[in-house]
Amino acid sequence: METIEYQLYKRILRGENEQLDFKHSISDGPKIARTISAFANTKGGSILVGVKDNKKIIGIKSDEDIYYAQKIANDYCYPSVTVNTVLYELEGKEVLEIIVPSLIEEQLTLAPNEHNEFIAYLRFEDTNHPAGAIFERIWAKKHFPGVQRIDLQPLHFEILNFFEQTSHPLSIEDIVQQLTFSRAAIIRALEMLILTEQVSFYLTREGMKYVISKK
Predict the structure, then answer these.
(1) Could you list the residue range(s) of the whole structural domain that residue 11 is in?
(2) Is the same domain home to 125 and 200?
(3) Are residues 164 and 143 in the same domain?
(4) Are 132 and 121 in contact (CB under 8 A)?
(5) Are 13 and 35 part of one and the same domain?
(6) Which of 2, 30, 121, 125 could form a disulfide with 38 if both were Cys (CB 3.0 to 4.6 A apart)?
(7) Mean pLDDT of each 10-residue bin along the chain, 215 residues long
């Protein structure tokens, strides 16, 4: 029977992925919070503190990191996130696991970006990505629905026509470059098309991509 420590070794050797992230230390609260946000807004996951990106185990500096982990989830995440922590001993060093639940059906978790603006993050493979304003507003409208007027305008049909003429997924920048409407107008139109299920979107390593929905 494999020990818990051996199971952790195997996880480390497999490397970072959609539900596992390595941090050499916990000193950068906003950076840790962005990973908590990304996990909470996707499938959940674990942060291993005391492990470098190259899988080298260096250990945490102090047992106080256990308490600082929850402080980060409280102070740098909005709404706050309750995380679980587990302390392991590997190669004579202590490794801290911060376990983040998936909360996307309950709340959209925000964390500060490099400009100290609170935004939502998503996890894709082994990296965190800003979810973007469209994702945040679509989430809010789906989870807190109100009376919405569905009024399709010429811009909506131009976007749909552009999608039909294009054989690959598009970014917002792709659409802005091709159509003679403002970026803000295109974003509002995309939100309406997503809400009416005519356009769908998904995250890639290059950011959010949009495609016409399959009928």
Answers:
(1) 4-131
(2) no
(3) yes
(4) no
(5) yes
(6) 121
(7) 84 96 95 98 97 95 90 97 94 95 96 96 97 93 70 86 90 93 92 91 93 82
